[in-house]
What does this fold into?
Amino acid sequence: MAMRVSYSYLDKQFADPDAILADIRELVGRGDYTLGAAVAEFEARYARMVGVRHAIGVGSGTEALTLALQAVGVRPGDEVVTAPNTFIASVGAIVAAGARPVFVDVNAEHTIDAALIEDALTPRTRALLPVHLSGNPADMPAIVDVARRRGVPVVEDACQAFTAAIDGRAVGTFGEAAGFSLHPLKPLNVWGDAGMIVTDSDALADHLRLRRNHGLRDRNTVEIFGVNSRLDTLQAIVGLHLLDKTVEVTERRIEHARRLDAGLAPLTPRITVPPRRPGIRHAYLTYVVQAQDRDALVRFLIERGVEAKIHYPVPVHLQPAAKDLGYKAGDFPMCERQAREILTLPAHQHLTNDQLDYVVGQVREFYSR
Amino acid sequence: MHRAQTVAVPFVALGLQQRAVKAQLLAAVDRVLEHGQYVLGPEVEEFERRFAALCGTPFAVGMSDGTHALLLALRALGIGPGDEVITAPNSFLASAASIALAGARPVFADVRDDLNLDPERVAAAVTPRTRAIMPVHLTGRPADMERIGAIAQRHGLRIVEDAAQAIGATFHGRPVGGFGAAGCFSLHPLKNLAACGDAGVVTTTDGKVADLLRAARNHGLRGRDDCGAWGYNARLDTIQAAMLNEKLPYLERWTAAKRQIAARYRQALRGVVGVPEDGPGEGAVYQTFVIRADGRDDLQRHLAARGVDSKVHYPTPLHLQEAAADLGYKRGDFPVTERLATEILSLPIYPELTEVQQEAVTDGVLTFYGRRA
It folds into this structure.
């Protein structure tokens, strides 16, 4: 019996948006669309949830990273170390800050290999940008250890990892600053592009508030040439309605991931479930495993109504945009092998156990043919 | 003394304008929720098509805001480190900031009493490193595109119009936004065509520039997994595009109303203060109505005491801002800009202003100069 298991759930998530629309109706009557009261309230509650002193709402997750990198001192000509298997925006953010991305290969968990970072550092390295890819925390204790030893600031790319944690400590609290995305496909999602920067530093927070709003200290004083990268009041209103629900959303995703893990484990080595370390709260923005004969499996699953995807099929160092950076195929063997094998299966909060079991059943059937 | 009775005239009244279209705006939001395409959904393309038609350009590309519109337009034209771009020092800071953010150097040229770039000063500011001119249609009044265009042509420079304040403005019948390589608009909540949050758009006659802009605003992505050049996230939200589409049909009416108020202000105040005239061929849209006044600060206080809000756009010229310290300018470099900064005052102007409120504004100015009891 065929079933549809879709990847996106946006049509279901806001089936009953009346409470949010009522607040938006009030906003439209009031008109404080730019850095209105809802933004400050959302920032305060967001900061509390992450466990940091400051949250600064910005235009997108990408801009959260660019602004955070600039705030910790990244300038044109500097280098920023990151992972090559990320969404291109991590790297676009580095380039937008005028800096040069330097890649370091990843580990079996698909996050930056902390043991390889030190070799990639040069006198020009001005920041580390570890990525909590797919919601899985990078090895922050080891990364922060290298960073402190070498005096390099850390900006966490937590765009995919809101509510992820290591031993109970939320991602976003390990580096000098962290960037989050509130993009519609994220577990805490608003109705358009939006992002959030968190930091414990009063000075960084002050600088970031300046930088997101044209560098304006007050209405008429321009301290730095900053961008316009403000979180819209309208989107903050949406975010306020969803914030408290996010933990529960992620709990459901974790349950779903465990069910998929258990169902797929017997298929080893055709399917490789990445190591699940104790103490790690993986937020499962995406549920990613490695699969033999991956492309055929993706086609098979799609035929069977399972919306399988690949995040991401082309490593960033092999993108046309990266040609000037001088990398070539073979430079990051782990990342490149994973790019050929990774597979994203639907695991979102609106799926039923029957749907998850159907997904597992289809993968089994593919390999038993 | 019955005249002294106060009529409150706030500088802006966003809620008022929205009220007229509120039901339509909320219905538009609802439609986006139904289809769930919050990122580059169909409403974005619809808005782009309609905005391009408004500006008479073949292409329009929606952006997250006016500053990114300028930044991405400069980058799409290949302007970056080592290049110079000439612009006006009396503009909103985003004009110069976008040049600096692109890695290029803002070079200022002084303006005329009409608050727009003085073509003679522009010509004098050209160096071998100049790559582009960024005329600003400040207050919604078109810059002298004929003479600026001639300078650009003579020196092989690109033109990036900063039309952030000038949606619908025309120069000799042609809409702004189509005079150069790119026209950059802001749709910020205080603009004549205003989103309910930050939004912007770039117009262009060059299909290649349009393609570059579409990729650059979306991470440089040409396909889902193909990144041709590093980009930004600078997308116009679907939800904002949907609401802008609802407002577009009103734009002409709103602009006509503002022009009528401008005409009334002009008639009442001409000869008492400097008023913005409609120069030959100028189709200004009065994003702001800026007078030049002796004793400006006292006038502003006098108006405030009578309940009339006014503002100064902008009291500190860009070359004297802290952010411009590295550019090496000093007081005295742009005498017209610096004088204007002490004279200019923006009076409330929006379609919903009642005649009583308009009279309160003009009476406020006239009483200050002793022209009315």
